[in-house]
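Protein: RING-type E3 ubiquitin transferase
Species: Neocallimastix californiae
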Amino acid sequence: MAKGKKKTKFIPLDQVGKEDNNKIEESKIKKGEPNSPKSTNINVTGVKEIKEEKKSNDKNEKKKIKDEKEDFSVCIICTENVSLYAIGVCDHPICHKCSLRLRLLYGTKECPYCKTELENVIFTKDDKRLFENFNLSDFVYRNKEKKFFYETEEIKKIVEGMEKYRCPDKDCAFLGDDWLSLKKHVKEVHNKFLCNICISKKKVFPYEQKLYTEEELTRHNKSGDPDDKSFKGHPQCGFCLTRYYDDDDLYDHCRKNHEECQVCKQLNKPNQYFVNYRTLSEHFNKEHFVCPHPECLEKKFIVFATEFDLKAHEVIYIN
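Structure follows.
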């Protein structure tokens, strides 16, 4: 190779142009230009873009909620068209009837849609307005105890009227002071009766109760109503002959007032009830294996499903 001839420097194709860029970056570092990694100047453009993006996302979220609210023209609980809305902080409106039923009769403040606990409820006819756009301190009509806020006096009257002892007859405007006065009214004026069991247990407002003739009430208690196939009547306690609202109510009564055979329950024969311990003891002696030792007889309920279980008990505890 001839002296003085420069060496040819080969650069890979994927590195072409990078060498010059590196020199430019080195030059910027020396000068302290803004794009230099060691520059003390802060590029705020990215921060601004992040803030703008966050604002945009927030707006989109609000828009999403507003769009969702358009789907609530029908109540998600009763599926009826809504004319008066109840909304809470989660902005999921339901009809005022279902809201009142949940809060006053079932004792829950949860939104049925998202389960958010709703401390305050606004009653309004505006299904587009968000909860946060209301100022609770501006409401003239409110119920401080229940934390209800009414947009107008008319709405206040509608909501409060739900709880009053209104006659269930749609053509009657009677308002009673209590159940006693309402029952007296329907008997004397309409020659009808209210079901006392439904009054005490059914989760409906007074005006939603059914009216019955004497014959209809008897059928209602024994076998149910023709227009409600799911209701089979109020079950009766075989010992007390008292009727209860449903099976759960009846079993609760039996557990508290009568005796259940726990051995039958273990043998997959639940709900075997007896009027008192004497009749239960007779059942034990007839169907199961009772420990005959005086100490066990005094303790009661020392009874077994099989003779083998009884013998095992005697070996461990008696001998």
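Remarks: The chain has twelve helices and eleven strands.
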